[in-house]
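This week, study the protein below.
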Amino acid sequence: MNNRRPVKEIASIIVITTIGTFLFSYLVFIILQNEIPPSLITIWNRWDTAHYLDIAQRGYSNTIIDERYLRIVFFPFYPLLIRLFAVIFRDYMLSALIVSNLAYASAAFYLYKLTLLDYTEETALRTVFYFSIFPTSYFLHASYTESLFLALTIASFYYGRKEKWWLSGIIGMPASLTRITGIILLPALILEYIFQKGFHIKRINMDILWLSLIPLGFLLYLFTNYLVFGNPFEFLQIQKEHWAKTIDFPWKGLLGAWRSIWWRSPADSILVGWAEAIFGVFGFLLTIWVSIRLRLSYGIYMLITWLVVTSTSFWLSIPRYTLSMFPLFIAISLFGRIREVNYLITFFSLLLLGLFLSLFIQGRWAF
């Protein structure tokens, strides 16, 4: 077997989708806005990007000026990397895009390696392909935390599967400093560890303690909240007061999304009503399938992730959050072994990716 072949194919997927995404976004902006943008980079400064760039440049603040106190809800590891790269590149926006796209490449390679532990090379390559053309995969290239979080999370899972628990724990720690769902790695990988030991308590060794490093990233984030506001859980209060998001049952969010279909404008009915509901149900159904047919630790990771992002008073950005439920791409890849299903998945993924990216690059709501 030619070991270089899969590396070349993965590299091709990464290069083609990355260049294609940025080229498409540039052409879309020119055509739909009927103007030449100042640069390719500036058109990607959308929505949450401004918050991450501000944190990278000025850190957190409790001042109400420019509402900078609101930025505490964004975790610090991604802005920290942007700041470090900016020392070299002297441009925060450019640095953010470099961090995101390097992380995407890393996530793609680790997803291939993780899938290859259980399935064929063809299935593993198809998994990376579906991951790279998912309808919200443009967030893997944007100045958001998606690609960094996935690179760390998938790598942590991979080294756990390889029983390199020290490395799994070390990599898992910055994952929980990148997004709150990073702490889900702890129960998922503990289950994976116990599964590998055949559920025999006597076979559990001291190496399981490496997994205790994972929540340290989240504890550092809580400590940051305390340093800035004097309250380690200030981010929850801000989420409640400013975004009106509180913890609630998942079906409340689903019903809210469904009901909103009928009173929103036609565009918002699709993007906020239908999209949130469809991706939410899609993620839940695949979570059940993964738990039964793939691996229990994958299922637990997906289930808790799904519960965290859907157990709110209203659903928002579910299509983007679904991207972080990486085992679903392994599941979809197994469905894609049937040629006709592969064509169907590829066509609709690219169709929706083009639609959502076109909206995002114009500064319109796209999750």
Summary: The first helix runs from residue 4 to 33. The chain is about 65% helix and 0% strand.
